[in-house]
Amino acid sequence: MDRAYNGETSESETFRAHAHVWRHAFNFISSMSLKCAIELGVPDALHRRGHPATLPELAAALSVPTSKTTFLGRLVAVLVHMGFLSRQKAAPESNGMSEHEADELGFEYSLTPASCAIVKGQPLDLSPIVLLTLDPIFVDPFHCMSEWLKSDSETDSPSLRTPLHMKHRKSMWEIKAQDKKFDQRMNRAMASDGPVMARLIMDKCGGRLFEGLRTAVDIGGGTGGLARELAEAFPEMEWTVLDLPRVVAGLERTRNLKYVGGDMFEAVPPADAVLLKWVLHDWSDEESVKILKRCKEAITSNSKTGKAIIIEAVIEDGPEEGETMKLFYDMIMMVGTTGKERNEKEWAKLLREAGFSDYKITPLAGFRSLIETYT
Ligand SMILES: C[S@@+](CC[C@H](N)C(=O)[O-])C[C@H]1O[C@@H](n2cnc3c(N)ncnc32)[C@H](O)[C@@H]1O
Ligand SMILES: C/C=C/c1ccc(O)c(OC)c1
């Protein structure tokens, strides 16, 4: 019999184990409370206000009716607990409340560093990524994970390719092509990561990264969230964003940045540097090698000193808290795409198979790295 059942385990140890289970079972409450706060615009309202708000003031600012104020208070309690709001005792005279009211509602709430990071429209706003991650299109298929794991891929029915496929009877890419709202949500989430990564890349690599290079193309670059920043930082270079025609339709070129609609599995515009951020983790090894081969052709046809620059997680490198994110993104890739997160060995193998020679990994802050590889 297991130690846990034979009485040798101390009670406190058992309770610690139970607490561990409880916490993990209820983790989704944190995710959903965060999602709700973003949808309601809680951080935005406090940011606009510029000073702390009592619960009734917050309710008014969010257009939550008086009949729902106490319910909002229950969400707010969770947000305080999670570190997305801070709570202080309000000075009673500051809000004109009687002492009795102050007992119940005498707190004021303000932003924390974590909620500042999800104020909409701020340069480094993470809220679009949260809303994409917690979209039912991604969350629902997690309920199918066990069923999917037991289904035999050998039968190779397309509907068994991913749990997302199993749930929606379509691939993520088909949904993205058909559902305008989801398409926008995803494009926005990706674009919002651009300025963050551009800043990290410039901090860690500076001008060295593009030294001697005249042209660059961001493959699967979405609406240009990253390329626009880099085009501004490196104005003497010519920049191109390649993405599917409907993603880049109607996007205006700037002085040194243009958009090209196309299919990266077919052809990639020639350039000295090819960028791939958060693209290869969407695809299996076979698919990734195909993309990388197109990239290699694009580089060699243009330059002898060219390189590919891959911005992705490298599993097992970097600090502990980064590791959690890599593991979680690996689940998202497994549930939603045919891709995966890769360790250094797996990256090296992909690059070799696609015909790249050497590579160099520079860890960026957070959970991603920059991989430079040469033709
Ligand atoms: C996860 S997003 C990453 C976007 C961007 N690189 C970033 O990091 O913000 C993947 C991108 O690949 C694009 N994509 C998917 N299939 C493609 C294809 N066959 N050719 C070109 N782009 C493609 C999608 O439209 C999407 O913009
Ligand atoms: C819920 C998140 C979905 C997602 C889908 C494809 C990606 O490449 C990705 O990269 C961060 C995120």
Automatic annotation (TrEMBL):
InterPro entries listed in its UniProt record: COMT-like, COMT_C, COMT_dimerisation, SAM-dependent_MTases_sf, WH-like_DNA-bd_sf, WH_DNA-bd_sf
Keyword tags: Methyltransferase, S-adenosyl-L-methionine, Transferase
CDD domains, A to Z: AdoMet_MTases
Domain O-methyltransferase C-terminal intervals: 169-357
Record domain O-methyltransferase dimerisation: where: 22-115
Alphabetical list of SUPFAM superfamilies matching this protein: S-adenosyl-L-methionine-dependent methyltransferases (SSF53335), Winged helix' DNA-binding domain (SSF46785)
Domain of life the protein comes from: Eukaryota
Residues annotated as the enzyme's active site: H281
Keyword Transport: no
One annotated GO molecular function: O-methyltransferase activity
BP GO terms, sorted: isoflavonoid biosynthetic process; methylation
Pfam families in the record: Dimerisation, Methyltransf_2
Protein name: O-methyltransferase domain-containing protein
Origin species: Eucalyptus grandis
